[in-house]
Amino acid sequence: MTRVGVNGYGTIGKRVADAVAAQPDMVLRGVAKRSPNHEADSAVQRGYALYAADSDRLGEFEHAGLPLAGTLPDLLDSVDVIVDCCPAGVGARNRERYASHDVRAVFQGGEAANVADASFTARTSFETARDADTVRVVSCNTTGLARLLAPLDEAYGVEKARVTLVRRGGDPAQTDRGPINDIVPDPATVPSHHGPDVRTVLPEVDIDTAALKAPVTAMHTHSVNVSLGAAPTADEVRELLARESRLFLIPEVAGIDGAGKLKEYALDCGRPRGDLWENCLWAESISVSGTDLYLFQNVHQEADVVPENIDAIRAMTTDIPVDESVTRTNEALGVGL
Amino acid sequence: MTRVGVNGYGTIGKRVADAVAAQPDMVLRGVAKRSPNHEADSAVQRGYALYAADSDRLGEFEHAGLPLAGTLPDLLDSVDVIVDCCPAGVGARNRERYASHDVRAVFQGGEAANVADASFTARTSFETARDADTVRVVSCNTTGLARLLAPLDEAYGVEKARVTLVRRGGDPAQTDRGPINDIVPDPATVPSHHGPDVRTVLPEVDIDTAALKAPVTAMHTHSVNVSLGAAPTADEVRELLARESRLFLIPEVAGIDGAGKLKEYALDCGRPRGDLWENCLWAESISVSGTDLYLFQNVHQEADVVPENIDAIRAMTTDIPVDESVTRTNEALGVGL
Amino acid sequence: MTRVGVNGYGTIGKRVADAVAAQPDMVLRGVAKRSPNHEADSAVQRGYALYAADSDRLGEFEHAGLPLAGTLPDLLDSVDVIVDCCPAGVGARNRERYASHDVRAVFQGGEAANVADASFTARTSFETARDADTVRVVSCNTTGLARLLAPLDEAYGVEKARVTLVRRGGDPAQTDRGPINDIVPDPATVPSHHGPDVRTVLPEVDIDTAALKAPVTAMHTHSVNVSLGAAPTADEVRELLARESRLFLIPEVAGIDGAGKLKEYALDCGRPRGDLWENCLWAESISVSGTDLYLFQNVHQEADVVPENIDAIRAMTTDIPVDESVTRTNEALGVGL
Amino acid sequence: MTRVGVNGYGTIGKRVADAVAAQPDMVLRGVAKRSPNHEADSAVQRGYALYAADSDRLGEFEHAGLPLAGTLPDLLDSVDVIVDCCPAGVGARNRERYASHDVRAVFQGGEAANVADASFTARTSFETARDADTVRVVSCNTTGLARLLAPLDEAYGVEKARVTLVRRGGDPAQTDRGPINDIVPDPATVPSHHGPDVRTVLPEVDIDTAALKAPVTAMHTHSVNVSLGAAPTADEVRELLARESRLFLIPEVAGIDGAGKLKEYALDCGRPRGDLWENCLWAESISVSGTDLYLFQNVHQEADVVPENIDAIRAMTTDIPVDESVTRTNEALGVGL
Ligand SMILES: NC(=O)c1ccc[n+]([C@@H]2O[C@H](COP(=O)([O-])OP(=O)(O)OC[C@H]3O[C@@H](n4cnc5c(N)ncnc54)[C@H](O)[C@@H]3O)[C@@H](O)[C@H]2O)c1
Ligand SMILES: NC(=O)c1ccc[n+]([C@@H]2O[C@H](COP(=O)([O-])OP(=O)(O)OC[C@H]3O[C@@H](n4cnc5c(N)ncnc54)[C@H](O)[C@@H]3O)[C@@H](O)[C@H]2O)c1
Ligand SMILES: NC(=O)c1ccc[n+]([C@@H]2O[C@H](COP(=O)([O-])OP(=O)(O)OC[C@H]3O[C@@H](n4cnc5c(N)ncnc54)[C@H](O)[C@@H]3O)[C@@H](O)[C@H]2O)c1
Ligand SMILES: NC(=O)c1ccc[n+]([C@@H]2O[C@H](COP(=O)([O-])OP(=O)(O)OC[C@H]3O[C@@H](n4cnc5c(N)ncnc54)[C@H](O)[C@@H]3O)[C@@H](O)[C@H]2O)c1
Fold it and tell me: Counting atoms of ligand 4 from 1, which one is nearest the CA of D9?
């Protein structure tokens, strides 16, 4: 049993905690949090041991009636792996602390690549993470792109990928994020940093990305073009991608036209939080003209990195092969639509 | 065991089906649907017997690989109560059909009040529904207002209620609904029809409503003013309302500032579909100046009528008292935050 | 000729500058700005003398190729009145500076009431501003409420006004403002500060306000209830309000259903920037039940305070009577739809 | 003087009417409209002769107090060219009528290409329109793409263009259009019809387009990739594009980050209706990697086709060369930022 802690219990942290708790070969020793808000409350309701991330805010937790199991150092003393889910940049500041407690650490995609020994998705980098003390699970967009490009590259060769990312302005609970009634080039320079981030896990792939920010909260949308090294039919591509366990091909008959219906479908299927751990590709959008592949995919920014975090833990702490880890993760979570 | 069927398996229908299936004293005999889309598919996945609403579309279901248990008349022959969750106005056209099969029927708030013998919320109209063959559960906004006004009227007397409803433009999955970047008076005439609808369940209450439509999908927001017959303190009102099982007073410390965080909280609590069956009132918004009470509440349009449908079924088919029915419904669903 | 300068050339400042430039009895001596962006550029294009607000940023203007007429002190030396249109709170910090140059100052509604000798709308407070060295034009929402309540109070007496303000989340060019897909109680406490602000210009009026923030940029929407001291017919109220030069009653036949069509109408009428200097009231929304008046009005946050700034200047610097000032302002701008 | 009429006085029609009225060599004989709403009212206010499109609705105009100059046939009898700006598809139904009155006709991009003898943008198809009795000005998106691709193709050769169109959900006044909080693949199939439409004016260009629909009203956003036949520097491309009179390169120093600030800038410059007749390209987004060009551009759907309509009229009715026509149109309107 790998003993795991989560530091930072927000959008990603709470999902990683649930996912760890669902694994047969892992045990969640607790979660650390800074502020005693409704999320801290729900951690307690779920029966997770709650640790204060800052020792000087113990009083606030007490005041809010939230029982603490200790502070972050206590949690670090009791785990093999800590998953850092703090806001972007905070992970880098925590790194020394984890090392000094001699625990392995998984960081998130908001950190720079050099925060860790290796960048990670299960599909592309499982073996690279084997000997690592620290691993960075790449961002939601990068994860979504890597999962798509890896099988294409293996099957046909990717000459060049060109992707427009229409990013959600904020997560559903973030009321301080815009824009309203605007599509904002962000960054205004092209290509964006997302392409280089993909190359941290798929170093050989040539990819240019352009990013926009839109007044939506549910998912990112990718408009994808890939110049392939071969000229498969659209059906062949569909079959290839349908074989990937973390790609969901939205069937045309389903009548699913956007993120709203996708999340509705996830909730109809009983998914906790309506999470879509899979890339969601519109099957009818997949088309090939010559060697040029086109498609639309949606990525649930809150969820797609969650199974990757689980696999990262296994890669670092066990010698379970990648396929078995992915299968275990998928089964424990219910990945696959 | 009351045998129940659901006709119309959309936003409301699927939730009512789940809620019926969760009751210890009811059995869901099946759901009827018109089109074999992803919702039909998820009904099958949940193990619900699926009936075709139209006998001339059987081929479409077969084509989609969706196994049918029969057509609507078959379902009607096997139930004591049918819950009609068809689009607004379709229920009225179905009424004769239900009567001819001699089944009791529950209609939704999109129908005119005269579709049924009685309009219903558990808090206001349980006994009225006792002898009824047909009952109409009032709309999401009306349910939310009745739940709030009933205890206020009992405790202090409601001299006059004035409510501005900022309504969601469409449900999350409805991509064809606007407005974008606009707040639309809808109807432009004041008072709106919502006030009279409240009087179908609280006939004695004097209420004027004004309605707007906004570019949001998650919840309705009510800005409420009530001129009371007494001058309680805000704390007394808070205590009064906190005692109601289907009112949730959002504590100030929770840091919940809008519908996004409310739904997040519901999902964090493990609620299926993130459903908020309770009115959600901002505790800090509750204020009294003289005899004038003010507050903000949010209503989850997809969910608040669901427990009411369950209680309506019990009122029509059993002699269980209102308190016991409400308690059973609440416990089976998990109402109460 | 009153010599006027504008300090702070943003949303409000540029409109005030245009309005001053349009008055036959005023001369715009220049505008002061902090950053040499596209707004500074358009000031130069309009032929306005441009002053640097900060003497340490002269180089930036030079670098951007924007010719400067001097710095703020130079502008202050050449005017009778400075209109401060800096971001909320900055005006208070500028006050001493204006006093030391012995110029009269007009502040905006983002400042606290005590920034100036008097708070102002032309309809309510023209005479109060006569002897003032400093005047604060109240905010867009307060201006809109005062214009509406003043004639109602005079004609019938206002027993109590209760208003829900559905505020725009940000101005059209503000991409960093939210919310997305949410209606946020802001402030969550009721009543909001808008009521007390109305009383700075209508001290005798009893008003409670509740404020929400919505994902729109074009206008604020007010849902208004007024308990009157009399029981006029809706038509009588319509006639009363139609006589006010800064209230526009949207005729039912116009087919104008929201802010989008209102702005379209303003642009169709050739209004610069599509500005609506008038409150826009839906004529068909005006209704009376007993002594309770209801109506919806929209307020163009960027524009309604602009004619008030002009009248404030005349009140402070001339002995022109209020009616003549308002008529002059209206004619020079084209107020009246 | 070319005598021009406009049939259909909506978003496009009113702009074309204003543009015709502004030309020294054209005279606007009148506009025809179906319904006597606020737009008809503003046509009268502008002094345009108003004609009823339907002879059976004369009473409605009279009732609304709108003076009519006659009906559509009267207008057709008095013009050389009619510009049809009716809703998509209505133009095709009007075609015979125009022919029977022996007037030349300009149609809009909502019609199928075969509605007219030639499809048109001034940059690509001026000579083609010379002998045509009927011309179709291509849609806003197609116009924006053709203006960009034509100079690139001339200078470097376009091997392949790949464009993602993030389209506005509705125009600012259209409250019945969605989506809310969703980015919808529309059409879900790739490539979309926009590519083939570009080839009606640039037959030789190889272009694939993918289209999304977003909850915004102000502009369309294009994420553009072009594989060129040469490898210019980004600066060379900037210089090339800056020479085109209907392309506006947004300078980086302007601080313009999206459609909101673009429209603000247009209004600051005194543009009527805030119209942006030019493609708006973010200068800093223009980048070249190898022979791959990337950039973002925004297209003001309500405005970019307006100067094209004017040039189409000149191409059909005069022998003025293209450059002179474009210059005249630009000067009369004020095109060029
Ligand atoms: N939200 C997304 O869409 C998304 C997707 C993929 C990756 N990520 C990455 O995941 C990481 C976390 O993002 P998130 O969206 O979950 O953020 P979040 O703001 O939702 O959650 C961060 C949590 O960390 C807590 N926290 C803040 N400072 C802390 C500290 N010093 N110690 C302990 N806890 C602290 C906060 O209270 C909060 O609970 C970031 O690197 C982000 O870039 C986010
Ligand atoms: N969505 C809400 O916010 C909400 C809230 C409260 C009450 N209501 C009311 O509930 C009722 C249902 O609304 P909804 O939002 O669930 O609608 P919906 O459109 O989501 O679902 C309606 C379902 O009925 C099916 N249907 C259509 N015609 C049918 C027929 N003839 N026979 C059988 N099935 C048919 C549709 O396929 C769909 O599955 C309406 O009266 C509505 O006013 C809706
Ligand atoms: N925008 C509205 O809806 C609105 C409506 C009514 C009243 N107001 C009030 O008007 C005032 C101005 O608001 P706004 O919306 O025009 O703001 P804004 O941000 O659009 O413009 C402010 C301008 O002031 C400049 N500036 C900043 N600091 C400065 C300084 N120290 N000296 C000189 N210039 C400086 C900025 O560069 C900018 O050009 C505020 O008090 C605000 O509350 C705003
Ligand atoms: N709005 C855009 O973004 C845009 C951009 C480029 C091209 N177009 C195209 O321009 C055309 C007009 O579109 P629009 O957006 O201006 O439409 P619109 O709906 O704004 O205006 C159409 C006008 O035509 C009138 N009308 C309707 N039926 C008529 C009839 N039978 N006879 C005369 N008038 C009639 C309507 O009353 C309305 O005033 C369409 O082909 C459209 O595809 C629109």
Answer: 39
Q: Determine the distance in angstroms separating the CA of D156 from the nearest CA of chain C, rounded to an integer.
A: 32
D271 marked as part of a ligand binding site = no
The verdict on the CB of residue C33 being under 6 Å from ligand 3 is yes
Exactly one of B86, B140, B269, B280 is catalytic; which is it?
B140
Residue C35 CA: which ligand is closest? 3
Checking if the pLDDT of C254 tops 90, the result is no
Judge whether A30 is annotated as a binding position.
no
Ligand nearest to the CA of C261: 4
Task: Confirm whether residue D123 is marked as ligand binding.
Answer: no
**What per-residue confidence (pLDDT) applies to C110?**
98
Mean pLDDT, rounded, for B176-203:
97
- In this complex, the chains that touch D, judged by 3 or more CB pairs closer than 8 A, are A, B, C
**Domains of chain C: which residue ranges?**
2-138+305-333, 140-299
pLDDT higher than threshold 90 for residue D243? yes
CA A156 to chain centre: 26
- Beta carbons within 10 angstroms of residue D176's beta carbon: 12
Question: Which of A174, A183, A213 to mutate to probe the D interface, most D CBs <10 Å?
Answer: A183
Residue C85 annotated as catalytic: no
Reported as a pLDDT band with limits 50, 70 and 90, residue B311 is very high
Among C283, C291, C280, C282, CA closest to C161: C291
Q: Which CATH class is domain C140-299?
A: alpha beta
Which site among D160, D162, D163, D164 would you substitute to test the A interface, given the most A Cβ atoms closer than 10 Å to its Cβ? Answer: D164
Give contacts of A270 with chain B, Cβ < 8 Å: 46, 272
Residue B106: closest CA among B90, B89, B85: B85
> Phi/psi of residue A203, each to 5°?
-60, -25
Q: Which residue has the tokens 């919310």?
A: C179
What is the pairing mode between strands A207-214 and A184-185?
A: antiparallel
Domain D2-138+304-333 falls under CATH 3.40.50.720: yes
Nearest CA to ligand 1 atom 13: A87
CATH architecture of the domain with range B2-137+305-333: 3-Layer(aba) Sandwich (3.40)
Structure-block tokens of residue D15: 């702009």
Nearest CA to A132 out of A105, A158, A155 is that of A105
pLDDT tens sequence across C270-293: 999 999 999 999 999 999 999 999
Report the distance separating Cα C280 and Cα A199, nearest Å.
55
Say which amino acid occupies B283.
A
The arrangement of secondary structure in C2-138+305-333, i.e. its CATH architecture, is 3-Layer(aba) Sandwich (3.40)
Among residues C254, C280, C99, which one has the least CA distance to residue D35? C254
Q: Does the CB of C336 have a partner CB in chain A at under 8 Å?
A: no
Q: How many other β-carbons are positioned within 10 Å of the β-carbon of residue D175? A: 23
Q: Is D36 in the pocket of ligand 4 (CB under 6 A)?
A: no
For residue B15, the cross-strand partners are: none
* Confidence at B324, pLDDT banded by 50, 70, 90: very high
Helices B11-21 & B38-45 angle (0-180, nearest 10): 0
Report the C-alpha gap between C115 and C101 in whole angstroms.
17
In C91-185 the beta strands, taken as DSSP E runs, fall at 104-107, 118-120, 134-137, 158-168, 184-185
Residue B333, amino acid: L
Asked whether residue D253 carries a pLDDT value surpassing 90, the answer given is no
Helix, strand, or coil here: B15?
helix
Q: Does residue B279 contact residue B248 with C-beta atoms inside 8 Å?
A: yes
Asked if ipTM goes beyond 0.85, one says: yes
Name the token pair of A144: 């979504």
SS3 of B230, please? coil
Name which of C216, C211, C221, C215 is nearest C187 in CA terms.
Answer: C211
For residue A275, name the pLDDT band (cuts at 50, 70, 90).
Answer: very high
| Closest residue, chain B, to C287 (C-alpha) | B190
Nearest 5°: phi and psi at C256? -95, 115
